[in-house]
Queue: 2 jobs
Job 1
Amino acid sequence: METIYLLTPLACLVGAIVAGLFGKRIGRTGAHRVTISGVAIAFLLSVIVFVDVMNGNLFNGPVYTWAVSEGTVYQIGFLIDELTAVMMVVVTFVSFMVHIYTIGYMEEDPGYQRFFSYIALFTFSMLMLVMSNNFLQLFFGWEAVGLVSYLLIGFWFKKDTAIAANLKAFLVNRVGDLGFLLGIGGVLYLFGTLDYADVFAAAPDFAGETMPGTETLWMTLICLLLFVGAMGKSAQVPLHVWLPDSMEGPTPISALIHAATMVTAGIFMVARMSPLFELSDTALNFVLVIGAITAFFMALVGLVQNDIKRVIAYSTLSQLGYMTVALGASAYAAGIFHLGTHAFFKALLFLAAGSVIIALHHEQDMRHMGGLRRVMPITWITMIIGTLALIGTPGFSGFFSKDAIIEAVHYSQQPAAKFAHIALTAGTFVTAFYSWRLIFLTFHGEPRDREKFDHAKESPWVVTLPLILLAIPSVIVGWIFVEPMLFGDFFGSSIVVRPEHDTLARLAEHNDPGHGAAWQMVAHGILALPVLLTALGTVLAWIMYIVRPDLPGKLAGRFSAIYKILLNKYGIDEFNEFFFARGGRNIGNFFWRIGDVKLIDGIMVNGTARVVGWVSSVVRHIQTGYVYHYAFAMIIGLFVLMTWFLSS
Amino acid sequence: MELNIQPILPEIFICAMACVILVLDLYLKPERRTIAYVLTVMTLLVAAGLYWQDFATGSAVYLNGMFIKDRFSDVVKIAICLLSLLVFVYSREYIKARDLFLSEYFVLGLFAVLGMMVMVSAGHFLALYLGLELLSLSLYAMVAFQRDSSVATEAAMKYFVLGALGSAMLLYGMSIIYGLTGSLDISVVRGIVAAQAAPDNVILVLGLVFILVSLAFKIGAVPFHMWVPDVYHGAPTSSTLFVSTAPKLAGFAIIIRLLVGGLEDLHFMWRDMLIVLAVLSMLLGNLIAIAQTNLKRMLAYSAISHMGFMLLGILAGTPNGYSAGLFYGLVYTFMGLGGFGIVVLLSRAGYEADELDDLRGLNQSHPWYAFLILIFMFSMAGVPPTLGFFAKLSVIQAVIDVELTWLAVIAVLFTVIGAFYYLRVIKLVYFDPPAVAAREISATADLRVLLSANAVALVLLLPMVGPIQEMCTQAIASVVGAF
């Protein structure tokens, strides 16, 4: 099995290297063949690993030792447990679908091979991240996916907005990564090792340890710092600003990286660190609050967006908030479950949106769409399936995972849980509204741009096939996995929950043991508040965009203040630009003028350089070229050494 | 006592092959001299294979204590074989273009390798001296190989005179130690010295200083470095390649054999001497390199400063330090090989390409070679993620571990100064307008491929840093553990 573990990421890496370095030689077809077969192999192997793990074969061991420093061993190794196996299958499956889809989507792009090389490299990095058995490799994967994300957001590097967006993503992620790195530093300092197993085993012994001179728990500090990393990567308020802008990248990337996999790395990481987070109630409450704010307020922004991809991007932010809340409520399993279902339906939504975008020749503004259901039936149906899953229609996958989160928060005893519960419940209404708004504006009504509409046609099979293949799990995974994942012992020892935090167990107590959990949830859910709110949102969207299309404009006029706030995304970008960017520039200018130019350049660098240069030109004359001078120098050296040591 | 020649089989093989090539040359027509070349390369390959196949697990002494076979010797010997092999491949075209493609060159090279092998395994003062002289004499001849070049002859003359002085000091030092202990066997000497080690033992100090000075001369540490720039610069680049690589490793090996194997109990004395040598080497090497306009001279001074760094590891006096020194030596020799390899690559008949100005704007005509230079220079400067960085990191760590933090600070400062002239090369290559309008490079495919591999390995071996360091640790453990 160890060979299989190793081969899974390497298959993708080989594809990436071949397509990247020899892209010109092997041509476009060669590039997609080699990367797709790499990812296909990785997917098949992941399924094998998944089945093997289900049979109880876990693995934790090093591949090799990278370095030893001061007694700390830095290893590259794999930890294969239930959590890893789920992530591997989700990542490789979505990646596989996106690879196929890309053949159609990037067909006319000159950077075809480069694109395939990047996404294969991404899959490799993501696999290294989820399969890691230590913090160092986790950090490697973390930075590597960040790098590929940066490269892909700016994939069209001649487009100014794309460059600005990838710079923004890079800078904002730096903030998160700094926290993450400090958190890892804290772990190393406290535990003296970076190995998961050792750290988790020792964690309970350090649970009460406070930082010298303060009342703060070490564990709280470490968890908060680690979570700052997760906030950057998983785009939680206030580090969310990069994600909507990342939509400048090609749509397959938005689906793969900025919806299904990379942005969920933060969720995965916190779930992986559950033995640490369980020890700090402060950190869990912080997680709850941040998640709840993201879930509700980002959904609101989604209401007023006109760019089809941005609506889905805000929806992603909001759904990431749901997952984060699940983590804060100690319902890690529910968070990961939602991560999995979300990966399928959100990738589906993005890819379907991409299908619309290519049909309309890179038109993304929904105000120029409408009526497309007649020409793009497959895209329409699959997107509706994705929407039904997203809004949590009873029976679809998103329903089970989202409902479980809301219920788990309901049972949570944490002080912040009440607030989170309200935010999430209200969020279901908003979610339903903006999702249907997107569907109605795009596929229903009359075409608003006749010319574009007339040229639109259904996308080729390489585009629609992934849509169909993603639509299937969007419907059924909930039925299959809800019971074992949420109420069974699916995650085994990979997720640790303290008994007093175990909200999912409390949720399970309300289930009647006689019947299947899935049926019970559906039966329960149909009459519960979230589903009613969802239905209300759906109806309202129908009224506003089908029955009375003039209403939205009137409402926007009536509530123009709120509308503007939402349109400006609460002004966070402006605040960042004003406070951090301008402030940073001013401080930078100050240090540049005074510190750099005058002190460092003027006195230290140029001064030293001048001295060094002068000394150097003098000293070189020691080398006279006369052999007796050389011999003399040797003898002198000998005598000096000798007298020194004899006299001392 | 039964004579067991099994452990010295590779040495016997190299010696026999050198003789075979020498005799064969009598019957070889000049245009078929490639046979001698191929035989030499094969010899080195086979020898490396023999060491690999019979890789030592512990430490064993043969031939009445003359010959030590341990992990350390095998690691260093395999490295020496590979380095020399690369040297011959790199320099083939160079010497062909200058009518130096003579079998004597290869025979001298093989004898030099044999000398190094004897040094590396020496368990006895005489064996050590014998190996050293065999190496030195071969090197003198190799430096003077271009007989009609007055610069080369002058360089060889200087090298010879100073080398004789250095050897005399070594002999003198050894004889003093012999006078004190009554033995030439290093392990016996160790036992007696351990009993007599005291700061006021004047005779021991005298012997130690003489030995140390000659060792410093052999690896070219300041103030016994004077020969280095002149020889590196004056010799044909093919010989510079040879002189500047494998012998440094052999020098490191005899330092380990003598100072660690024999005189480790005097560590409190030789530590301070090595500190002086190391600081001076790093200071002068880096400083004077800045003022050089000739690439070969610049690399010569850079070599001096690198030897200072290697000494840092040794002077720490801990197994960690020794293995850091070995790691540094291994990495440096392959970097230095690449540095001079670049000079060989760019030169052609009648054109040496060894002035810094010759590198101007190379990127515009040959981006790949410019990139190779970039890697070599970054690695020598110690910029991550090249191996050069890890080499510096490990010796500095070793020094900090023995609480010589000030020395580590100095080492880092000199690295910064050194970075200047390495980066200047990169600036010339990438940012300056081309010096020669159309530069043609006539290097053969094997040189191009191996030099590229040499450079790329400095970066791509990054994930292997751990295992390589582990190998060095084990090698040193076999030396230290033998007592």
Job 2
Amino acid sequence: MERIERLLEKPRAYNNVDGVGELSTGLMTLGFAFLQWMQVHTPGHSAWNSHYAMWIFLAVVGGAIHYGAKAIKERITYPRTGFVEYQKPAAGSQLMAAGMGAAVASAIALFVAVRSRMDLTTPLSFMGLVLAAFYAHGFARTVPWKWAVSGVLAVGSIAIAVLPLTLVGPLARGSSVSFPPKIVAVLWLNFMLFGTAVAISGGISFWLYLRRTRGLARDTQ
Amino acid sequence: MKEQIRHIAGLDRVIHEPGRLMVVALLFAVERADFLYLLNETGLNKGTLSSHLSRLEEEGYIQVEKTYRGKVPQTLLRLTDSGRKAFEQYRKKMKAAL
């Protein structure tokens, strides 16, 4: 019975068999870190701080990553180890409802906290742990060596959270956003750590996949 | 004990065969997949996998679609509604039997 349940998990793991899922996530996060850096270190009236610039930037980076990943899948992964089309989540499914509920609850909590001028420095400092948990659940469960990456992310995010303001403050110097410098710096450091670690892990996975599947027959259909 | 034996006796024999069970379980978790994917994941050889797929198709549990990806022929496989129901029943009975 356990073997059947393991088989049911296999297709989900196959989505990142080539490391492309991680590469995409890592590069998207690094893109987001770059955007945040530009927003913080350019004047408030610059193009980087306009509402549309963020959407244009995310659409361009997101589009490039999406179509790049698709091209790798179609030219490398599917001819080597096969094609899989995943089930689309049914509208109103429990997972989707739970996700939307969590997003709405978080947005309300953040809105209330900002309105009542609560100090969010400590909870936001540990945001890296949420990212580490996301990585562990999404990628590390299926490949043992990726638990090491999860460990690096967790330890790194704790280290970032406890860094003194004197050390991280310069990163947010001259910031044109209204958040405290500690939050700005910690968020940026967490995005950089997560993006870099996940992109490197994805790159290694991709390299290992290419080596493992080199010379696999194309005409096995 | 009697109850467990009754559940085991009631298992779908088409799905219970280990090779076919692997195929059905893999297809259950996706919308569709190609022959090459099943070949890699199950570790079966081409002939054995083909014969299992034919048996499942005969039973109406899978739908086979022959197509091309560029110039390369591709065989796409999808679990039918009756295949899905049969696998769900199989899992229930197995859980009850164990």
